[in-house]
């Protein structure tokens, strides 16, 4: 039987080589921590940008 080595890709967060395969549910990250950190920082950045120019949302007048 032929053994297939999973392709190793560098984690976008910390650069650690992690297997890019179904065995790694956090691909392309190396771990849950790196994936969570990256998503958190991305969300934070987005929130900050939106926070600089908050849209004025007026509720519709109740009549
Ligand atoms: Zn990592």
UniProtKB/TrEMBL annotation:
HAMAP family: DNA_gyrase_inhibitor_YacG. One of its GO terms (biological process) is regulation of DNA-templated transcription. Interacts with GyrB. It holds the Pfam family YacG. Signal peptide: none annotated. GO terms for molecular function: DNA topoisomerase type II (double strand cut, ATP-hydrolyzing) inhibitor activity; zinc ion binding. Belongs to the DNA gyrase inhibitor YacG family. The keyword Metal-binding applies. The gene is yacG. Inhibits all the catalytic activities of DNA gyrase by preventing its interaction with DNA. Acts by binding directly to the C-terminal domain of GyrB, which probably disrupts DNA binding by the gyrase. InterPro entries: DNA_gyrase_inhibitor_YacG (IPR005584), Znf_NHR/GATA (IPR013088). Keywords: Metal-binding, Zinc. This is DNA gyrase inhibitor YacG. It comes from the Bacteria. Zn(2+) binds at residues 11, 14, 30, 34. Binds 1 zinc ion. Its cofactor is Zn(2+). The keyword Disulfide bond does not apply.
């Amino acid at each position: 039987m032929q053994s297939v080595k999973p392709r190793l890709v560098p984690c976008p967060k910390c650069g650690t080589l992690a297997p890019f395969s179904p065995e790694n549910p956090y691909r392309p990250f190396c771990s849950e921590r790196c994936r969570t950190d990256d998503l958190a920082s991305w969300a934070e950045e987005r929130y900050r940008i939106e926070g600089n120019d908050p849209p004025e949302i007026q509720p519709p007048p109740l009549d």
